[in-house]
Amino acid sequence: MSTIYTPISTDKPPYNDAIEKLGAAIGSLGLLVLLISWAGVNLPQPKLWLYGSLSAMFAGIMIFSFRRYMTKPAGIKNNGNFLSGTVNRGILGWVAGILITGFYVCLYIKAEWLGLGKDGVANTGFVGLFDPLAMAIKGKPASQWFVYGTLYTFAILAFGVKFILKYRHNKYHILRTISIMFFQLFFAYLIPEVLEVLNPETATNYFGKDMKNMWPLNSYFFEEWSITNMSKAGFLGYFFLFLGLSMIFFISPVLTYLYGKRWYCSWVCGCGGLAETAGDPYRHLSDKSMRAWKIERWMIHSVLLFSFVMTIAVIYGYLPNKDSYWLNRTSFTILVSVLLFGLAAAYYFLQNKNDEDYGQKVTYIVTGSVIAFTILFLVNYISGSGNAFILSNETLRSTYGFYIGAIFSGIIGVGFYPLLGSRVWCRFGCPMAALMGVQQKLFSRFRITTNGSQCISCGNCSTYCEMGIDVRAYAQKGQNIVRASCVGCGVCSAVCPRGVLRLENGSVDIFSKTTEKRVAMIPESEIGIL
Amino acid sequence: MLKKPNNYSMHIAIIGNGISGITTARYLRKLDPNARVTVISSETDHFFSRTALMYIYMGHMGFKETKPYEDYFWDKNRIDLKNAHIQRIDFNEKMLHTQTNEQISYDKLVLALGSSPNKFGWPGQDLKGVGGLYFYQDLERMEQYSKGLQRAVIVGGGLIGIEMAEMFHSRHIPVTFLVRETNYWNAVLPEEESKMVSREIIKNGIDLRLETELKEILDNGNGTCKAAVTNKGETIECGFVGLTAGVHPNVKWLKDTELEINRGIKVNAYLETNIPGVYAVGDCAEQQDVQAGRRPIEAIWYTGRMMGEICAYNIMGKQKSYDPGIWFNSAKFMDIEYQVYGAVSGRPPEHHASLYWEHEEGNKSVRIVYDKNTNEVVGFNLMGVRFRHEVCEKWLREKTDMKTVLSQLKLAEFDPEFYPSFAEPIISAYNKQTGSSVRSTASRKWNQVFSFLHKA
After folding, report:
1. A84/B59 CB distance under 8 A
2. At what angle do helices A46-65 and A144-166 cross, to 10 degrees?
3. Is A299 part of any domain?
4. Cβ contact A7–B207 (<8 Å)
5. Chain A residue closest to B340 (CA)?
6. B11-116+248-315 matches B130-245 in fold
7. What digits encode the pLDDT tens for the residues B73-132?
8. For residues A35 and A151, is the Cβ–Cβ distance under 8 A?
9. Between B171, B331, B416, which is nearest A170 by CB?
10. Alpha helices of A464-520 — where are they, by DSSP H?
11. What ipTM was predicted for this assembly?
């Protein structure tokens, strides 16, 4: 008997082979430079260190990604996710979470800890490191926001390439990721900076110049200074005012009707962009439980309501009391009341009464709270207190800005990626996502269809849903998936080993798209459900 | 004894908490709020998706992620779960006896016992480090022997075999895959597809040995396997041997009872066994009246689900007969997804012909099988391409002819958005092959699909 054995297989690397580790090490060295400068060390020749650091991080990510994905056949690459501490809440996961959270805390609350020089003092440390780049792009020293914007864009671009390599067999993901990278680089980063350079007066009279960042995600759009600065900036200002209004009232609802909220959340949005690229390794950490879903629904819709209330209060606060101008407190009150009642009525009539997810209770809560706030608004108007709601307009604004804008969207939203998954903000807090979610649920052509009875309940779809949707619960019933929170990233469809899910748009059955189910052979209408 | 609620219409005991047993329990509860339903299993406390065992090992999911229902679900729906191993059933007394000498009485009994991996009497087949992949415990065994494993040998070229190969491969453990046939799974897959999967296996660095059988497994002296010996006289050193040469109904322990058993538990169309009040569902059930295109025992996920549903109706006195409809199935071979609808075989009957189109990259193909005499389409076999179940089913049910199917082919396309359509190259392959001039007249847009499906 011979005992000679000649293996055909040559593939025997450990999980992270030497070259992947080398990539990770080079990237970490680049990151280390940032950490050292954050610690307050003023590096000599910041230009060299900054470009060196960015290049090292980029090179590290590229080496890692090319080695990890391009040396293997194209396909789903989730091996080891639940065995790795880095992406499954191990020590490295916690370290990453704490570092990012710390960065956001400094960013929003203590920018001087990043080295921001105030009142004419030169930048030091972290922010100082970015001065050369800021000088090159806009001809003045960096601010903490410039540092943030640069790193944010860098992350989306570098990890975007990684994501494309990971999903290189899937055209939907390639196009979607290129779109995200494009919108971040140009719309969020370069165009606003260039516009400011070309229109220097708008730097001191600042207003948001990210064309895709619309209210209510851009919570300050309607604030007095923002409107005033836009109105003072000539064509550019009026362009942004007009664009902002049409985005909210026309472009966004129409696109959401046509394609679902994915047109924004996973194709355009910056928050979504970071989640889809840098946040991708953490997508499976989102909580899929019914409890999490309940919390999500209360939380995100409360933020939406809060953003409405805050914005109404802010506008009300700066409008003239007299009828010196057609838009005054009286006309605004009438306008808003009609709008709110209209929205409540629309919800009441559009909501699908056969939909299991949203029962009558939800209708009562939605219409009830809208009506309650409208009445509250009217009462405050009549009382002549000058406040739109009981609290002062400014209190509402600053509370929203701090708790929602800074703590929620930044610190928790990104800092907690390695702990709660990549879409915490999008899922629990984003008022834009909430608004488009309601539109998606009520009148969008978008849905994810289920392929007959092919589902084997394996759970890959639910596991890799970054929004925490239990996709499997629908798929195994042969039911379409129409969820307000679905951002249409398409990963459920990609990871399904049986080809069960497809993202689709169609106008024929908008109001019955969730009702059909496929059971063995007996429709559920024949039996009584408990 | 289990605690009994104060009043219930009857006690239905279900042995087995796989998809068939659990679906039975869920539908029983839907149909009757008062019945007491107990699901007994010694495998796991809660229902999980057996099909996802491989993903736990590969690190795609944790065990928790494989559970389709959260743990509170069972209490909320008053489905009692009992972790116990039933050793003996007294059909006359309607009593179950557990391994720990507990007794559980029932009014109706559902046997959802599942399967066990086949062992064909190989010397050494019961050594440690040898086993199949079916139960959760099999996964634990694989995990246990994976530590420091230098090589695994897998025996049997079916769906579980390739899954197991992929599992070890994901942990960079070298795999030798012994397949008895000339190409992977070629009794089921037509030749071209079978070759495609064989290529895929080799491409992934797996040592595929075609036309090779296991002869014996060698003992390392401590009762653990150390090598597999093939029928070609080769000894392959390995710390694990995966036995994946099919499964058989897990009914051996009931062989000497009054329950009628052939290979599986014999059931009629209502899933009733020969003993009144006793039903069998899922992998362990053997149909006596088999529909065309179906086999008496089908150990697949969806038939278990369908049987569970039908069984619940019959227990509740609403007679429904089991009819799984037109055959379909799916799987994934490494990175190649596979779907089949209707009659596709590695050994097709004389009157079947097929149109086969393969993508130039050799990892996607579409085969449409039709009847040579009537030109009716009888089956679809898809590799790396997703088709829509309902559309294929409707064509098959309505015995649609080949030309109509081809002209409407885009209706069936289920690949993600922006993926290329392969309808045109498929149609031109057909036109070339038959000298016809079929043209595509449909699109894959949902509105068109919807009106097609809802057309009487």
Report:
1. yes
2. 20
3. no
4. yes
5. A454
6. yes
7. 999 999 999 999 999 999 999 999 999 999 999 999 999 999 999 999 999 999 999 999
8. no
9. B416
10. 471-475, 491-495
11. 0.95
| CB within 8 Å: A73 and B203 | yes
Burial class of residue A376, CB neighbours in 10 A (0-12, 13-18, 19+): middle
- Find chain A residues with C-beta within 8 A of B67's C-beta: 459
CATH number at residue A520: 3.30.70.20
Q: For residue B309, what is the nearest residue in chain A, using CA coordinates?
A: A520
Task: Please give the structure tokens belonging to residue B50.
Answer: 């057996």
Query: What pLDDT score does A10 carry?
Result: 37
Residue A264 counted as domain residue: no
| CATH, domain range B328-453 | 3.30.390.30
Query: Residue B2: what pLDDT?
Result: 44
Q: What is the mean pLDDT of residues A409-430?
A: 92
Report the residue of chain B nearest A12, measured CA to CA. B172
Are B79 and B86 within 8 A, CB to CB?
A: no
Closest CA to B173 of A59, A398, A79: A79
Cβ contact (<8 Å) for B234 and A460?
no
Q: Parallel, antiparallel, or unpaired: how do β-strands B265-267 and B285-287 relate?
A: parallel
Look up the CATH architecture of domain B130-245. 3-Layer(bba) Sandwich (3.50)
For B11-116+248-315, CATH gives 3.50.50.60
Indicate the residue of B66, B68, B233 with minimum beta-carbon distance to A1. Answer: B233
Containing structural domain, residue A124: 14-72+110-198
pLDDT of residue A284: 96
Q: Give the closest-approach CA distance of A398 to chain B in angstroms.
A: 40
Which residues of chain B have a CB within 8 Å of the CB of A451?
Answer: 386, 388-389, 414
Q: Report cis status (omega within 30 of 0) of the bond before A46.
A: no
Mean pLDDT of B432-447: 94
Residues of chain A contacting residue B235, judged by C-beta atoms under 8 Å apart: 1-3, 5
Confidence of residue B266 (pLDDT cuts 50, 70, 90): very high
Average pLDDT over residues B177-192: 94
pLDDT at A485 over 90: yes
- Taking one residue from A and the other from B, the number of pairs with CB-CB distance under 8 angstroms is 202
DSSP per-residue letters across A362-401: HHHHHHHHHHHHHHHHHHHHHHT-S-SSSS-HHHHHHHII
Residue A468 lies in a domain: yes
- Which among B51, B206, B386 has CB closest to A499? B386
Locate the DSSP E strands across A55-175. Answer: none
Encode B204-219: b = buried (16+ Cβ within 10 Å), e = exposed.
bbbbbbbebbbbebbe
Q: Please name the member of A460, A498, A499 whose beta carbon is closest to the beta carbon of B55.
A: A460
| Cα(B402)–Cα(B426) distance, integer angstroms | 12
Q: What per-residue confidence (pLDDT) applies to A378?
A: 86
At residue A133, does pLDDT exceed 80? yes
Total number of domains in chain A = 2
pLDDT averaged over chain A? 89
**Where a domain ends, among A198, A224, A253?**
A198
Average pLDDT over residues B420-434: 96
Q: Which residues of A touch B339 (CB under 8 A)?
A: 454, 498-499
The C-alpha of A472 sits at a distance from chain B's nearest C-alpha, in angstroms, of: 7
* Domain residue ranges of chain B, discontinuous segments joined by +: 11-116+248-315, 130-245, 328-453
A42 assigned to some structural domain: yes
Last residue of a domain, one of A159, A181, A198: A198
**CB-based contact A170 B51, cutoff 8 Å:** no
List the single best residue of B46, B57, B61, B143 to mutate versus A (max A Cβ within 10 A).
B61
